[in-house]
User: Fold this.
Amino acid sequence: MPVSMHIWFDMKLTAAQLDGSNMSVRAQHPWPLEDDEEASGLDLTLDEKTELSHFCDVISVGAKGPPIFTQGQHADHVFYVNEGIVQGRHTIRSGVRQSVALYWPGDFFGLARDGMFFNSAEAVIDCTLYRYPIRKLEKFLISRPRIQHKFLMKAVHDIRKTQRQLIIMGALDVARRLAVFLVDCCGHREYFDTGTQHLTIPISRHDIADHIGTSAETVTRAINTLEKKGLIRRETPWKLEIKTSELLAFSSLD
Assistant:
């Protein structure tokens, strides 16, 4: 796929591919042209980004549309978040759904077990994703051990994030879980203004509730608690003035 190629087309994917959803797909150079480490989250060089761009599709997924993929669906791709936020969810046999992760720009997702996706994935805001065929990516990484090592380091980082989330869910009350979530949001410069300390909350209260294991009403009460403690100040329902160090100290999470 030539790097200079820019082709847009609408594509109705089969149910076996992406659960019957309509997505806009384009073939182009997906990585930023500047050597921007933060954009990739993998510390890739410009040449490495260019090599990876040769065998991926760029997919635009609308918020609250059909799932990107569903639990138990055949897994033949992995996905990279370029823009937006994706929520991973797992459904147990009783029908209860649990949020397992939020995937931010720079994250890969698409965990498989026995060739099937272990979780479902949904866009919680409009997203641009890079979709990589698993077999092509495996072949590519085998021949490029340096890039393979960077992917391994990213996987180790994601395991640490999962362990941290287990601690948050098991040891903290709802107000402290919310405090950690807000601090994490502040790490994403597209939503947090370091000059004014203003955070634009990127997802709905229902999605926040799913992520921290509570209800939307309890999220509202937790926001009130944090505001009464002087840790945040609401300017609008979606914009907060944040005291990040105080919030992190309140959460009791190192």
